[in-house]
Amino acid sequence: MTSDETIAEAAAFIRGRGLAGPFDAAIVLGTGLGPLVDDLTEAVSLPYAEIPHFPRGGVSGHAGRLVAGTLAGKRVLLFQGRAHYYETGDAGAMRVPVGVVKALGIPVLILSNAAGSVRPEIRPGSLVSISDHLNLSGAHPLIRDETEGRFVPMTDAYDVALRAALQSAAERCDIRLTEGVYAWLSGPSFETPAEIRMIRILGGDLVGMSTVPEVILGRYYGLRIAAVSLVTNLAAGIEGASPSHQETKDTAAMASETFKRLIHSFVEELT
């Protein structure tokens, strides 16, 4: 089957299980940020494992469920977890889920992740609106795509108006939200101190193992993109840091309430 056919089949299955639109936004929830689903009303959920052609992610902190419902007065579709390049060896592992967002007519895709800070002034527990990214993984989700659409322009991939709306939402909630450049490395091992020094020289502020493939795919499908990182640790070598996945999960859980307040405020003002 072609990508379009697998996406259409997945979308039809999702509609048939009661997760029908229209939706105002789709939100991908990163490590430790899944509890946002508890704030939905009229929620209907569906395990990824039941959806045709959906990836089967296996990382702790990612429940692997699709949840539809109402948040802050808006209809949203939440992806409670994602598949990563390091799990599959396929940078396009999220192609069907992102394509389903387009197929369901959802105009806005909000991405979230747990990230390491490359700058000591961006402390664990901070929220950062991603303004741009560095793809340092050596991979790309559109390799083997044979359409003209693969030549995706990435200027302002992180929608300027949505970034402004995130800042306004943060101000209403008295949340400090900085902007930064996110560097994607493949994982699953954490970065070395030398790699972190390289990222700083290249202009990166954050580092992580996700999100960039979804941004590229989202732009391929014509979606408007916003992305927020929850900083869970200082990157390797900064103030003696040596990150671990447990640290990532623990810090994300502690800061998830702040993330939830920001997303509530942001979604409420979506038009």
Q: Could you say how many structural domains there are in total?
A: 1
N-to-C series of helices and strands: HEEEEHHEEHEHEHEH
Q: Kindly estimate the percentage of residues that lie in beta strands according to DSSP.
A: 15-25%
Per the principal axes of the C-alpha atoms, what is the gross shape? globular
Task: Write up this protein.
The protein has 271 residues and is of the alpha/beta class. The protein has one domain: Nucleoside phosphorylase domain (Rossmann fold), CATH 3.40.50.1580. It has helices spanning 3-16, 85-88, 95-103, 160-172, 193-202, 212-220, 245-268; strands at 25-29, 41-47, 65-71, 74-80, 108-117, 127-135, 177-184, 206-208, 224-234. β7, α5 (193-202) and β8 form a beta-alpha-beta unit. α1 (3-16) packs across α3 (95-103) and α4 (160-172) packs across α7. The longest helix is centred in the last third of the chain and has 24 residues, at 245-268. The chain is globular, with a radius of gyration of 17 Å.
Summarize the structure.
The protein is α/β, with parallel strands linked by helices. It is built from seven helices and nine strands.
Give the arrangement of secondary structure elements.
Elements: H1 3-16, E1 25-29, E2 41-47, E3 65-71, E4 74-80, H2 85-88, H3 95-103, E5 108-117, E6 127-135, H4 160-172, E7 177-184, H5 193-202, E8 206-208, H6 212-220, E9 224-234, H7 245-268
Parallel strand pairs: 1-4, 1-5, 5-9, 6-7, 7-8
Antiparallel strand pairs: 2-3, 3-4, 5-8, 6-9
